[in-house]
Amino acid sequence: MYFTRAFQSHEEMLRGRESGRWEDSDEWWEFGRPQNLEKFEIPKIIFAHLSSEATFMLDEVGTWYYKTAYSVLLSNDYIPLTDQLSCQLNSKVLDFYFKHITTVKAGGYYEYRSQYIEKLPCVIESSSGGFDTLRGKVREITDNIDLESKTERFPEAYLGDFDGDLGYIDYEWQTRRYPVNSGVEEIDDGRFAVTAGRSDEITDPLMDRGDREERKLRARYVHAAVDGRNMKKREEQTIPIPRTRDGVEELIEELETDRQTVEETSIEELEAEIDQTVYDLFDLTDEEREVIEEYLEVF
Predict the structure, then answer these.
(1) CA–CA separation, 72 vs 120, rounded Å?
(2) Which residues contact 34 (CB under 8 A, 6 or more apart)?
(3) DSSP secondary-structure letter at 193?
């Protein structure tokens, strides 16, 4: 029910896309450019046209659709190696090689186009266990990124498995906030509000339920739902909140567990392990590795 309500709240905007092309359509929710969608619906590696360094993103199952990025589309024989090849494309080894063959743009950016990407050499066989290491590390990275994204979309991203009753807090933002920097304040009689600056104060009967500790817990929930969001002036936000204390505690505890997992996972360390594994795949000497490291510190 919540997801239907949240999606339909964007109907007017979606109908107004592309000079009103979808205004009278019964399928106003469809992707704006429906051509060749099957090419998006496979595992792929996504990258930007211009970048200062390798930023290849793994789409493991084919769920990303876009218009301004590019993809590495592997042939059927190599699709099972999507994880390992994404690691190699992001590695210091291939970034070093790429920066010697591509076009340099103003501002220290490099042009990532197929005519250069196609020249990048990748290892496609390994008997040393290196591929298993790469697969494991890239899954750790993507899982952590997905988990961090989930925490930033609280509570919507946590409602899929929640089967309790929900209420809804509707709030209209009085000031443009990019991002919302909010706090929890006790206002009177053991009641709590979520405030941002001088003009925005969120209160609601759904936040005033129970004893003082429950009201404080509910305010923490609302704080987690708004803090860090980008909100326009007069933009309305609907916050789904469990009607029971147990429901609020359940979602808050899940959020805090996920945040702790994200905090304890070092993507930099995982990427460093990937780099070392790729060095081994290409059988590079210590001297060659040092040349790459020193070059990439400058370029």
Answers:
(1) 12
(2) none
(3) E
185-199 pLDDT per residue, tens: 999 888 999 999 999
Tell me the CA distances in angstroms from 256 to 76, 138, 263, one per residue in order: 41, 24, 10
Q: Could you tell me if 89 and 56 are in contact, meaning their C-beta atoms sit under 8 angstroms apart?
A: yes
Task: Name residue 168's beta-bridge partners.
Answer: 240
What 3-state class would DSSP assign to 181?
A: coil
Structure token pair of residue 117: 């990407």
pLDDT digits (tens, 9 = 90+) for 109-119: 999 988 999 99
Predicted TM-score of the model (pTM): 0.83
- The ranges assigned to domains in the chain are 1-29, 31-153+267-298, 165-243
The whole-angstrom separation of Cα 52 and Cα 50 is 7
Number of helices (H) and strands (E) in the chain: give both, helices first.
11, 11
The C-alpha angle with vertex 285 and arms to 282 and 287, in degrees rounded to 5, equals: 130
For residue 198, the one-letter residue type is: R
